[in-house]
Specification:
The chain is of the alpha+beta class. The chain contains three helices and six strands, in the order E-H-E-E-E-E-E-H-H.
């Protein structure tokens, strides 16, 4: 009945195991080995307390992992298109419920500056932690 809050590399575990193990099902997804560091074009996909303060579209300069698997019961909140590399258009943030518990994952948050970023810091990452805690 508790919560699970994961950022960035929390979804790179068990990348080559199929079907995705219980850990990846619990966190709601899994990244592949594909990632990109640079300018990414992001967009909000769902209305949720963790996206309420996000603009519909925004740029993010940083490192993101490409989600290779997103659980069927995960609600994708944000997708970003890599500005280079594979040019992947990938799920970056999602939520799901596990019984009475709440799960929030975001590929944002690899570095400390993400927590103070004017677009995603308090408005998304910290809001995700608050949602997991039931606030």
């Amino acid at each position: 009945g508790g919560g699970l809050f994961g950022t960035h590399c929390a979804d790179v575990t068990f990348q080559s195991v199929n079907p995705p193990p219980l850990y990846n099902q619990l966190i709601g997804g899994r990244a592949s080995s594909d990632n990109f560091t640079g300018d990414n074009a992001c967009r909000k996909l769902a209305d949720h307390p963790t996206t309420a303060a996000l603009p519909d579209t925004f740029k993010y300069n940083g490192n993101l992992d490409n989600a290779a698997f997103v659980a069927a019961d995960s609600v994708v909140l944000v997708k970003c298109k890599f500005g280079g590399g594979s040019s992947a258009d990938t799920a970056v943030s999602w939520v799901r419920n596990e019984g009475p518990g709440r799960v929030f994952f975001t590929s944002f948050g690899k570095v400390d500056k993400d927590l103070t970023d004017a677009t995603i810091g308090d408005k998304h990452i910290v809001a995700g932690l608050g949602w997991v805690l039931g606030r």
